[in-house]
Amino acid sequence: MRIIFFIYLFVLSFITAFSQGTEASFKEDQFIDDLISKMTIEEKIGQMTQYTGFFDITGPAPESGDNKRKYDDIKNGLVGSMLNVKGAEQVREMQKLAVENSRLGIPMIFGYDVIHGYKTISPIPLAEAASWDLEAIQQSARVAATEATAAGLNWTFAPMVDISRDARWGRVMEGAGEDPYLGSRIAAARVQGFQGSDLTASNTLAACTKHFAAYGFVESGKDYNTADIGTSTLYNVVLPPFKATVDAGVMTFMNSFNELNGIPATADKFLQRNILKGDWGFDGFVVSDWGSIDELVIHGYAEDAEYAAQYAAIAGSDMDMESHAYKEHLQSLIEENRVDVSVIDEAASRILRVKYRLGLFDDPYRYCNEAREKELTMSKENRDASLEMAKKSIVLLKNDQDILPLPKSGKKIAVIGHLADSESSPLGNWILAADDNSAVSLLEGTSNYSGNEYSYTQGVRLYEGREKFIYELKINTEDRSGIEQAVALAKESDIVIMNLGEHGFMSGEARSRATLGLPGLQQELLEAVHEVNPNVVLVLQTGRPLTITWADDHVPAIINAWQLGTESGHAIAQVLFGDYNPSGKLPMTFPRSVGQVPIFYNHKNTGRPYDADLVFWSHYIDQTNAPLYPFGYGLSYTAFEYKNLSVVSSQNTVDVSVTVTNTGDYDGEEIVQLYIRDHHASIVRPIKELKGFEKVSFKKGETKTVKFQLTEKELGYFDNQGKYTFEPGKFSIMVGGNSADLIEQVIEL
Ligand code: GLC
Description:
Elements: H1 2-38, H2 41-47, E1 49-52, H3 65-75, E2 81-83, H4 88-99, E3 109-112, H5 125-129, H6 134-150, E4 155-156, H7 180-195, E5 208-212, H8 231-247, E6 252-255, E7 259-260, E8 263-264, H9 269-279, E9 285-287, H10 295-299, H11 305-315, E10 320-321, H12 325-335, H13 341-357, H14 370-376, H15 380-393, E11 395-399, E12 409-416, H16 442-446, E13 451-457, E14 463-464, E15 474-475, H17 483-491, E16 495-501, H18 522-532, E17 536-541, H19 549-554, E18 557-560, H20 568-576, E19 640-649, E20 654-662, E21 668-678, E22 689-698, E23 703-710, H21 712-715, E24 717-718, E25 724-725, E26 730-736, E27 742-748
The structure holds alpha-D-glucopyranose.
């Protein structure tokens, strides 16, 4: 009797939840359909139009020219969205211009590049990925959303989920590295961090998965360049992180500048309608990247801006970021029957749907609260979260003779490098809202360890010029005048900390490099200092993998400190002096030389893999195939031993367990990684693929058993028609602390 009662309750609650869900969805559809039915074609096209901020709304209204026209468009309800308008007051006044003057009072949605923090800057996304800590990454996005929404924003152009294997491409700093499994898990965590569990809450905002698609595969690593890849790479490497964000409920997508296999992504109907809106059932909207609709003409795809608007709208690009192509041409295209009005209705509906889910129709000003903005921006809580994220993002690459951690007192320590004193560079690249020079520099960070005596010198100047997104820094390649002083200081010091690498504006959009060494004269500086004092600790500051091969051969200790954001110096100091035991693992392979690029761990075997007795195998005659540091690599101040790998396959699952022991002298965290290899398949599979990881804490001497479960979901792959397939056969199951040092078992499934 009782069981029947419980079954009754379960069914009742299910029906209630289902009916509430369908009722809410019905109410949403009804609201949108009703509004669409009242709108003119011009107003619908207006929803598809996005302008960048063009004047100070609290100042005098524009009285002439382009700005006057845009101003009037907003007042007439012909602008669906603004980007680059920030601050509770600015957003409220701009929103009022639309809501209180236009015929239907439709609110605008305000977007901004909140990529790794708003004012409190977190580590660059590639650094966060090195933490493999999904909870911390989600929290980092949460902090960013809290600050951004307090500043009136309700849409961020993040997460960027472009997989890339090419460190020459400057935007690797913005993603999660080379692996689709890690990239998918991180992408979903970032969406959940930004959007939270209630989009109508005033501290959550709509996320935007970008750049759809294959932007990370630009040829020669040159930004905006062609991407030409096969279907196996598209389905098995590029698309999975995008799909993971749809499964996580992302509200918007942004398409990419590049053409993919001959078709510019902005006009790629197969990508946007067949896959994204069709197979995946995505019900949000797609925004073009900046000006990418007009660029269809420059690509050589559309004859003119009119055709560009036609092709982009029909292909499923719902909103036009700053091309003005839709505003200028869609009405006539409809009148000429070149674009059906249903295309406009669908695009406008998708945009209205996101605004509805954000609660903007209930309260267009819900995000505009100056008191909240003042209270939350750069709060101690937010800075503490950024510091935690930064510490977890640091990767210890080398620590010979246990030179690290450094003593906290009694030493004369030289701190050398232009970057060591920079309060700007550690912020990284996407810092539009951050206060200038708001980072804690490495030099400042050492001040918390005042038991030592520190002396600083710049060594060689790395750069000059304006440290802003829209300017290119000039790298010093001639002025060596600082080397002599640096050498003299090193001679009289016990230890030398050298903070070398790239300025934050040497990676990011439009910052591709044809070389990957230490920029400028830093390598000369490093060698000159090392010659007089080999006790060098290299603290790398970088937005990408670098070929620091000489350093790896000569320098006893190397820390990869990426660009760690506002709390950079404090995080680095805690690692240097042992108050935090580094746990980060590389999300992207470090090459030995740029000639190896693209280089990545999950490569195919080829028909001629390594064979020492032969000349005719896949290799270079002047460089090894091996990377400098492999994917998943990172050291700790302690050590971990892997034993007792057990692999048991049953009906539809493979149960994996391994014992891991902390054999060193420190408590620490280890990221236990699980890889597979499908030895024979109808589409050749990589020699290994990450399919699981666990970040585990260990007291010194402690042993833990770590368990994983594999199903067809992890063991299969996409065939060249995009169909997910699992084929029984011989599999290797591998576990370890990086993608190279693994213990393995082979099983038949
Ligand atoms: C840029 C970037 C894109 C960004 C957008 C808005 O060109 O490619 O990632 O979100 O424009 O700033």
